[in-house]
Specification:
single chain; alpha+beta; two-stranded antiparallel ribbon; about 35% helix; about 15% strand; extended
């Protein structure tokens, strides 16, 4: 499992060098994934990797910041 993360990192860097953006994902529905992709029982899905072309504007939305005093009480 540990070496899987290193392999995924190298894969992500390779995609980036070819102009693609990536996003690793955990917390997926393993049962549904196995059924959709016909993954055999002996295989263990560790993570998903989304790959695509990034929008020129980026993926960032305008940020909303609340005043610190609204959420912090100094003692």
């Amino acid at each position: 499992v540990k070496s899987t993360a290193l392999a995924a990192q190298n894969l992500m860097l390779a995609f980036q060098s070819h102009g693609y953006a990536t996003c690793p994902m955990e917390g997926f529905d393993e049962v549904r994934l196995r059924k959709t992709l016909s993954i055999p029982r002996q295989a263990l899905p560790i993570m998903l990797l989304a790959v695509g072309k990034q929008d020129e504007k980026g993926v960032y939305n305008p940020r909303l910041r609340f005043p610190l005093e609204q959420h912090v009480t100094w003692l």
